[in-house]
Structure formats: structure tokens, C-alpha cells
Amino acid sequence: MAELLIKAKKHWMDEFTQKQIDDLPVNAKESYNARTQIGDVIVVKPDGWPWGNEECLPTFLVIKLPGVAVSDVEYLTQELYGDVEKDYSLRIEKEKWEKDGVEVDTLKENRLTTTPVAVLQDEKSYLVVGKWMQKTMLKRRKYRVPENITKNYAQLGSSAVTIESPEQKAAFFNAVSEKTS
Fold first, then answer.
1. Tens of pLDDT along 53-92?
2. Residues 104, 106, 107, 108: is their CA dihedral positive or negative?
């Protein structure tokens, strides 16, 4: 039997206003966008896992699935990655630039999406700037149980819910959605 630990409580950043979100630095905004959400499957463990004192309501909910192998549901904990265009800059020593040269094709192989521009930065170096694609975590979890279902289970008052019938299991897995961004 597999047991799923599901996020049942809002993330603390969910209370941010739009102005607070807009004011976040780029790396903090990426963390904000990737944060866990109600219904995210945090971890999958085997039957009888000794859950800790913090792995319960109001923060988490355990869904027990008798007859379902852990290996069949581990995919639910995958993270969602995607390519994001970012600014690119690289400082190259002037001596190396003039001695070895820098091939634009080599820079493009490093996922640059625009033709890089080299600018003489100072007497000792060039600055190469452009845009490039970086693989970035878009969401901490790729799959989630819809918020209304998670809340319905949580309202039962128990930190663990067992889904036993094949029909209930089918309905549960049909409800699990895949995030796309």
C-alpha cells in the first residue's frame, strides 16, 4: 500500500498582495511561482510509514491507498521544469579573447538565444552579453490533488484518509491534475 503526504495548508507567500509580488527580486519571484500549493503530493511512502508530529493537519494530510504500489504513484512527486529566457553576461580577459578568439557558435551551444555582443569593458576584458535559455524549476510539484478535494478530506478531521474501493481510487486518480506552468 502507498501513502501520500499531501499539502493541506496554504503557503505563507499565498497571502502576498500583487504589489508585494511585483516588488520581489527575480530569484524570489521564481521561488514564489514555484512554491508548494494545497493539494501538492509532497512524498510517497510505503504502508505503515511512521509519520512525524508535523506531518498532520492542519499542514498535511495522509492519503492511504491499499493495493496501490509505491512505485505506481512515485511520479506524483515530480517537479515541473521548463526553459526560461534570462540575461546572459560573460567577462572574458582581453588577452584570451585576442589570443584564442571566441566562437559565436560555441556561445550559442551554451543555450544562448540571441547573437552575443562583445563590448570592450575596460583595458583588460570584454563583456559578452545576450539572452540564454536556462532550465528552471517552475513548480515544486508537477501534480496536485484539487484544492476542493484536499479540503473535503481535511474537513473529515482525521490527518489520514484511506481510499479503499476501486471506484474511489479511480475517482481520486482522475481528479489529480498535472500543472503546466
1. 999 899 999 999 999 999 999 999 888 877 777 777 777 7
2. positive
pTM beyond 0.85: the answer is: no
Single-letter code of the amino acid located at 58? P
**Rounded distance, CA 6 to CA 61, Å?**
5
In the block, which residue shows the cell 500543472?
179
Is the Cβ–Cβ distance between 28 and 36 less than 8 Å? Answer: no
100-153 pLDDT per residue, tens: 665 555 555 555 556 666 665 677 777 777 777 777 777 778 888 988 888 888
The sign of the torsion formed by the CA atoms of 33, 153, 6, 83 equals negative
- Backbone φ and ψ for 2, nearest 5 degrees, come out as -100, 145
Whole-angstrom distance, CA of residue 55 vs CA of residue 130: 45
Quick one: three-class SS letters along 39-105? CEEEEEEECCCCCCCCCCCCCEEEEEECCCCHHHHHHHHCCEEEEEEEEEEEEEEHHHHHHHCCCHH
